[in-house]
Amino acid sequence: MVDVILGLQWGDEGKGKIVDYFAPAYDMIARFQGGPNAGHTLYVDGKKIVLHQIPSGIFRENKTNLIGSGVVLDPVILQKECEAVASFGVDFRKSLYVSERTHLILPTHRAIDRASEAAKGREKIGSTLKGISPAYMDKTGRNGLRVGDLLNKDFHNKYQQLRKKHQQLLDNFSFDEDISQAENEFFEALEFLKTLKIVNGEYFINDALKAGNKILAEGAQGSMLDVDFGTFPYVTSSNTITAGVCSGLGISPQKIKEVIGITKAYCTRVGSGPFPTELHDEMGELIRQNGHEFGSTTGRPRRCGWIDLVALNFACMINGVTQLVMTKADVLDNIDTLKVCTKYMVNGKETTHVPFQMEGSKVEAVYKEFEGWKTDITGIKSFKNLPPQMDTYINYINETLGVPVNYISNGPGTKQIIVAS
Ligand code: GDP
Ligand code: IMO
Ligand code: MG
Predict the structure, then answer these.
(1) Report field, pTM of the whole predicted structure over 0.70
(2) What is the 3-state secondary structure (H, E, C) of the chain?
């Protein structure tokens, strides 16, 4: 049986904390897509750590953590991260596995990402510049190198051939940074990667399923950043939705049981692209400060706004969400009036659908207002002790989305989570 945890917004919903919280109930935690564009924050013994490549189950004892086939892997970042988790006493050599089909991010992928974004100027995607899009382009373009290729004698030749292609692209962009140092680090990190447990991911996970193991699939990014269903072209380059679990891990849809969708009590986005409920005023600034909304991977300030039920409804639909986790509810503790987006006005017409294109259309959010709870909720341990205004807020979301909010996260700490009874 496979349960899924994924983000329903534009990323940074708190997936790291929630996966770490759920992990003890599972045997294996598997990342199915994305790469080091992800930044998943966890607190371990009160100390903060941000994971980019390693699944967020790594700090739980006796768990298997798999970097799945659908992931793109930067070996330099992976090595640093392995060293970081080892400093917490984690024996990653025992618990971390990498699928041989996982595609590698090359130093030239990162260079192409930088060059391509620079060339886009004002139209840039706001990429994390980790080489995600060029690596996935090489995967779908059938040029990429995979972890399993490392073990073949002709790896070096294949690398040089691909590097040549990349150089032509870089020349077109008139890109002239010296990447030789990055290449040295890459080759050193590949030697490290070879010493890890490299497995045939699809047999590995299906054998585990046959043996009755429980698997938790960990999403990266969020549904509105999905390459097919997000706010294209301002998206990432992978399928961040439940469907990505099957293609990213090599499992059948029948194996998937619970789909646990995470939403913040409000909404954030980092990078460019449409964001109908964005706040450009002091309220946006207040939420940013209360929620420490600065990117875990890039440190960029996150754009902040009200919760968007049109986008969330869409995300619940395409993912088949069975239950919701609402994170960062405490961030709204000191706000007098809360707003919830219930509809859009698109070019003057009311709709509850996410339009094909938000760019270029005039999309305005229509709001319903709620009284704020004006209470410190960070110490609350049970649903029955929630302030009544918060009950009203949560109930409205439950009813509108038709999916229950079963968990409310009320602080960054591992234990700060309220469970519906
Ligand atoms: P992810 O990418 O979805 O794992 O999320 P990030 O780690 O990028 O961002 C979430 C941020 O919010 C992190 O700094 C977390 O420590 C923090 N966080 C998670 N849950 C809560 C919560 O319930 N309340 C507060 N105040 N912070 C939280
Ligand atoms: P986690 O897993 C928030 C955004 C980038 C940019 C767009 C494309 O921590 O939630 P990319 O580097 O993928 O080419 O960038 O997607 N983005 C994220 N935003 N959280 C993330 O991951 C993100 N990963 C990518 O800011 O707008
Ligand atoms: Mg993040």
Answers:
(1) yes
(2) CEEEEEECCCCCCCHHHHHHHHHHHCCEEEECCECCCCCEEEEECCEEEEECCCCCCCCCCCCEEEECCCEEECHHHHHHHHHHHHCCCCCHHHHEEEECCCEECCHHHHHHHHHHHHHHHHHCCCCCCCCHHHHHHHHHCCCCCEHHHHHCCCHHHHHHHHHHHHHHHHHHCCCCCCCHHHHHHHHHHHHHHHCCEEECHHHHHHHHHHCCCCEEEECCCCHHHCCCCCCCCCCCCCCCCCHHHHHHHCCCHHHEEEEEEEEECCEEECCCCCCCCECCCHHHHHHHHHCCCECCCCCCECEEECEEHHHHHHHHHHHCCCEEEEECHHHHCCCCEEEEEEEEEECCEEECCCCCCCCCCCEEEEEEEEECCCCCCCCCCEHHHCCHHHHHHHHHHHHHHCCCEEEEECCCCCCCEEECC
